Structures are given as C-alpha cells and as structure tokens.
Amino acid sequence: MLGLLAEQAVLFAVPLLVFQRTGSVGWAGMAFAVEWLPALLAYPFAGLLADRLGGRRLFLVANTARALVLISAALLCALRPHWTVGVLMAGSGLLSLCMAPVRMAVEKTTPALAGDGALSRLQALVQNLELLGRLLGPGLAALLAHALGKLPLLPVAACGFALSALCWRGLPGTQPVQADAQAPGHAAADLVLGWTLLWRNRPLRLLAGVGFIINLAFAVAVGANASVITGVFGASDHVFGLMNAAAGLCGLLALRLVPRLPGPQAMARLGTAGYAVLCAGMAAMAWTHSVAVYAAAFALSIGGAAWFNLFNRTLRVQAVASAHLGKVIGVFYLVQYLPFPVAGLVTAALGPTLGVQAIYKGMALLLALPGAVLMLQVARGAHDALLPRPDAPAAPRAAVAERA
C-alpha cells in the first residue's frame, strides 16, 4: 500500500512539473513515453527474474532501487534547477525499469498466497489496494504539494518505497528455480518459451489484444489529463488531484458492488460489463466541453476498468501453469503495455496541432469497434480457461504445455 501511494505521488508530481516548466503538451507526452519504454523492454526479463529469484526477493531489490532513484533525482533538481526536465525524464526511465520487477513480483506472489478457490477473491483484494492507493495518493499528493511544493514529493515517495520494501520482508518467498537453470543460454530459451506459450494460448492471446486497445486509449488520457485539466479547461492543479482521487473512489466502489462470483460465466459477464462502461466514459471525455463532465467520465471509466481488470487478472493467472507464470506474464505485460510509450509519442506528435480531445475521439472509436469484437471473443472463450485445474507439471523447454 505504501508503494502504491508513493507511485501515485510520483505520477501526480512529474507530469505537472514537466508541463509547468515547459508549457508544452508535446514535452509532457514525450516524458510519458520515456517513462514507459524501459518498462516494456524490462518486463520479459523481469518475469524470468520472478521465476528464478522468487517474488519477495525481487520486490525488495526493486523498491530499494526506486527509493534511491528518487532521492538522487530530488537532490539533482534542487542543486541544478535548470536540469529539472532532463533529470525528471531520466529518473522516470529508471523508475520504469524498476516498475517491471515490482509488477512481476506481485503477479508471482499473489497465486502462491491464494488458497484453493480463493484466487479471484485475493486478486480482488490486490486490486482494491491498488484502487485505494489511487484514491488516497493524489489527494495526499495534492495536500503535500500545497504545503511543501511539488519537488519535495520525490523524497517523500522515496520513503514510501523504502517502507514498502520493509513490509514485504515478512512475506513467505516463492520457490526459485534450480541454479542450473540460471545460465544465459537458458534465459534465451525461457524468453522463447514465454512467447510460445502466450501465442498458443488463444484466450490469453485475445485478452492481450483487448488490453492493448484499452491501454492505448487510457494511456493517451492519463498522459494528457494534466494538460487537459489545467490547459484546455483552465482549471487548477487541485482539480487534477481531485479528479484522480474521485477516479480511485469510483473504482473502489465498483469492486465493492461485485458480489461473490459463482463461476466463469459470471466473471466473463463482469469483464464485458466493465468494458462497456469504460467505452462510454472515454466517449464522454472525447466530446465534452465541461471540466465537471470530463472528470466524472474519467472516474466512470476507472470504475469500468476495475471490473475488466478483475476479469483480466483472474483469467491470465488461471490460464498459465505456475512453473511458467513469470515467463508468460512477462511477455503478456510487454504486449499489454506497449501502447503507453506509443500513446506518449502520438500525443507529442498530434496533440499540439489537432488537440488532445480529437485524439480521444479516435480512441473512443477504436474501443467501440475492433476492441468490442475482440472483447466478445474473449468472453466466449473465457469459460474453459477459468475452470479450476491443478497446475500442470513443468514442461520441458522444447515442449508447450498450454492448451491452444
């Protein structure tokens, strides 16, 4: 939870600092792209590390590194103010490299902690914590920024990452692989195996496609929200913080409305309903001329995304044997989060000329047409993938154990 609050503080501070220093939505979009590209390259390797080192150990190392990066960035910005934009962009890239191991550590540890039949409930708890962090983080960040300034948020977030690492020291570790599987040649074979398992698992492959489209739309919105709120609508940065807090609250309430899901069909219906809600929210953001409607539509979209992501988390973990979870989820994350740097580049290239809301309209159409077709196929094929099954034994490297 502390790490999530720290992430939200950084996400609040960095876009505003870059936009206010440069006054350019193009620079803000470029910073967003730099923030995500290293993570994309790191995800497959982070998945291998999660399988080999175990989730707890990987989490401790990555969060300690994040704390050191933020302390260093804060010191450089304070000592050399004219370096601020460059330091923030470089620091965002380093934080991005550390984010991939943290996500893979959580993906690896969550199924190991879940008892029989408890996976969907534990995934809902993890997502509730993420949404609670999204709810509290921007509000706390806005208060701290008002009292201390935006730059001091960086060392405050560093303390959050360090404390988060300390909290994980008491968790049981997942079993790492044998030492003879850690040679460089085996790493290349594991990467190939991860891509092969993902491609031959049709429900997971389609789910990655849906996630790609959703994240492309929302990456544009998240990367441009600060400039839309403070630039297009002329509102204060406090409104930006309140909007993010309201979005977190909406997502949390959406999950609280979810009853115990009796079976795979109910989970698939939940994912489909969430997709429909976030499509409606994106469309409203694209065509509105009111900051209040924009903020409400963004919050509504986060609520729909909460339902979809619960379905997403459960399906992708249930469809992969635990022995190969890190390998497959690492490349799955690469596909799902590739839109983030792409969206930053699109915003940087088209935002200054077309306007951000024109890009939103294209994203809304993308969600409503090809995205909806893919989502219906995912929902139809989710039943078999979500059926409880014992883990398959570890497959030989040349074999593929997943179902097509």
TrEMBL record:
It is found in: Cell membrane. The chain crosses the membrane at residues 25-46, 58-76, 82-102, 206-233, 239-258, 270-287, 293-311, 331-352, 358-379. Pfam families: MFS_1 (PF07690). The keyword Transmembrane helix applies. InterPro entries: MFS, MFS_trans_sf. It is a multi-pass membrane protein. This is MFS transporter. It comes from Azohydromonas lata. The lineage of its organism: Bacteria, Pseudomonadati, Pseudomonadota, Betaproteobacteria, Burkholderiales.
